[in-house]
Amino acid sequence: MTTTSSEVRLTQFASGGGCACKVPPGELERVLAGLPGGRAGGDLLVGVEHGDDGAAVRIDGGRAVIATADFFTPVVDDAYDWGRIAAANALSDVYAMGGVPVVAVNLLAWPRTVLPMELAREVLRGGLDVAREAGCHLAGGHSVDDPEPKYGMAVTGVADPHRLMRNDAGRPGLPLTLTKPLGIGVLNSRHKATGEVFGQAVAAMTTLNRAAAEAALGTGVSCATDVTGFGLLGHLHKLARASGVTARIETAAVPYLDGAREALAAGYVSGGTRRNLDWVRPHTDGDGVPDDELLLLADAQTSGGLLVAGELPGHPVIGELLPGRSDGITLLVR
Predict the structure, then answer these.
(1) What is the mean pLDDT of residues 42-46?
(2) Containing H/E element for 32?
(3) What's the Cα-to-Cα distance from 135 to each of 103, 128, 151, 165, rounded to whole Å?
(4) How many Å apart are CA 224 and CA 226, to the nearest integer?
(5) What does the pLDDT read at residue 4?
(6) How many CA atoms lie within 13 A of 318 on its CB side?
(7) How far apart, in whole angstroms, are the C-alpha atoms of residue 145 and residue 247?
(8) Which among 19, 84, 159, 235 is placed 20 to 30 Å from 304, CA to CA?
(9) Which residues contact 227 (CB under 8 A, 6 or more apart)?
(10) What angle is formed at CA 22 by the lines to CA 268 and CA 207, rounded to 5 degrees?
């Protein structure tokens, strides 16, 4: 007897969901601080020091290889959609660095005695369809028997080493542009709790960041990141810290998906989002901004948009980069 995706709520087999299940950023930084290696130098153009979206290695004068990996537990119940979302999320790291994905391999963990392998096939089919959309080869991968389902990809891309987009290239005076609305995290949390399906969230998560990356490169942008598990505030803090600047956010300019504020008001906030806010709060000047607004800005996104230090036509400017401060504040929220 075949089990269909509609008969199984995949999110109920996961303790977390999507990029909200990441190790907390502060905890991760403490672990990495004690490990040698991985620092940029020589042909390693981008390493671990600034929390960029991928590693970049020069292979000759005009080419660099970008390497990244990303996987997570089910963020939606539909197996095919989960595969599409996870693939778009993994490919996004290459786009956020200014690269073009060339080849990817699957990363699959599956409770094979609990969930039918037919559902795993649907996950892989979703990933394959998005890889094809991106023009990226998908060839094999690795799978393990695991009590909790997980899926993602390791992706290799190429880029011009002189045109990388990175966290440490922000400069005062540059506007900040966001290419997808926020609110994915709270809508996913509501979906996990209630089973309600939010098509607007699925559409956002499955949209590739390719066009936004191409537009950014076309306007000469050299500083960008994607907004995923650490939320807008977390990723912007890392960018501002690496660049030695302070970032100002105009809350009224930040776009949100329909239903995001209602989901927040109903209490559908992940632990990952709360940890994000706890991490950046000491570095944030947000006097007068309600905690609910800060939680939305820290909302753990899955396959979110690009945050670009530059202006992209058709996307909202949500703030700007200012000169750095000496008091450790990297984020001004108004």
Answers:
(1) 91
(2) helix 25-33
(3) 9, 10, 20, 21
(4) 7
(5) 47
(6) 25
(7) 43
(8) 159
(9) 178, 180, 182, 235, 301, 304, 305, 306, 307
(10) 75
Round to whole Å and give the CA distance between 45 and 142. 28
Closest to 24 measured CA to CA, from 331, 330, 300, 305: 300
Q: Is the pLDDT of residue 113 over 70?
A: yes
| DSSP-H helix ranges across 244-307 | 260-265, 271-280, 291-297
CA distances from 302 to 73, 74, 98, 226, 321 (A): 11, 11, 19, 10, 25
Single out the residue of 60, 141, 74 nearest to residue 104, CA to CA: 141
State the catalytic residue, choosing from 19, 21, 136, 223.
19
Token digits of residue 177: 């542009």
Write down the pLDDT at residue 33.
Answer: 73
Buried/exposed code over 226-237 (b: 16+ C-beta within 10 A; e: otherwise)? bbbbbbbbbbbb
pLDDT at 153: 98
Structure tokens of 60? 């000759």
As a residue count, the chain comes to 334
Other Cβ atoms less than 10 A from the Cβ of 312: the count is 21
Q: What is the mean pLDDT of residues 74-95?
A: 98
Neighbour tally for 147: CB within 10 Å: 10
Judge whether 297 and 181 are in contact, CB under 8 Å. no
**CA-CA distance, 283 to 236, in Å (whole number)?**
11
How confident is the model over 45-82, as pLDDT tens digits?
998 888 888 999 999 989 999 999 999 999 999 999 99
What is the amino acid identity at position 317?
A: V
Mean local confidence (pLDDT), 174-196: 97
pLDDT digits 0-9 by tens, 204-256: 999 999 999 999 999 999 999 999 999 999 999 999 999 999 999 999 999 99
Give the list of residues 6+ apart from residue 33 with CB closer than 8 angstroms, or none.
none
Q: Does the pTM exceed 0.85? A: yes
Q: Pairing relation of β-strands 284-285 and 331-333?
A: parallel
The first and second tokens of residue 102, run together, are 């060339």
Residues 6+ apart with CB under 8 A from 99: 54, 56, 64, 66, 157, 158, 159, 164
Look up residue 153 and give its amino acid: M
